[in-house]
Amino acid sequence: MLFVAKWMLSKGQGATMATYDSLLLAFDMDQRVDEAEMLWNMILHTHTRSISKQLFSRMISLYDHHSMPEKIIQVFADMEEVGVKPDEDTVRKIARAFQTLGQADKRKLVLNKYLSKWKYIHFNGERVRVDVSAVAELLLVIASVCSVTRFVVVFICLGRFGGSGGRSSWLQDSCPVLPF
Question: Whole-angstrom Cα distance, residue 93 to residue 64?
């Protein structure tokens, strides 16, 4: 697929955002970060004002998969410059990059600026809006009053509020006191 896509792009055909997204994903899966970076720079210089949120997220995910926090911050800076607002998963990756680089104050700013105060969940067959800070406070009260272990608190929260059955990253970001 890579060879066909690169050949099409060299002939001036198929230069769409979907093609770029597929190529970035293929480069990520094939551990070819340098080629992905070359393609990304070409996209940035060619389509400066029309790059989608999905492409920015794809590039941040690529750098996150390869543990390159400095590059994540660079892509985030480009994203802010163009005026594209990141989605929640991308915000968490950006915050983790700031944390890795030892910039906890910037991590907090990014989380406060871009993470939603509300989380929408399905509870008893209905869509319910839940205040994320209220969930965090509830967990802390349960943990302190009942002196239960961290596992039980997470299990109760996921079963009652998240229902995902797995690790909830929004819970981790909203409950910084509990080390997950």
Answer: 7
Short-list 118, 155, 65, CA closest to 178: 155
Spatial distance between the Cα atoms of 48 and 91, rounded to a whole number of angstroms? 21
Helices 33-46 and 69-82 cross at an angle (nearest 10°) of 10
Q: 99: helix, coil or strand?
A: helix
What percentage of the chain exceeds 70 in pLDDT?
67
- Shortest CA distance to 153 belongs to which of 165, 163, 164, 141? 141
Residue 118 bridge partners (DSSP): 131
Tens digit of pLDDT for each residue in 25-42?
Answer: 888 998 989 989 998 998
Residues in the chain: 180
| pLDDT score of 155 | 47
22, 70, 89, 126 from 108: Cα distances, Å: 32, 17, 15, 32
The CB density around residue 1, as the number of other CB atoms within 10 Å, is: 9
> Do 175 and 136 contact (CB within 8 A), yes or no?
yes
pTM over 0.85: no
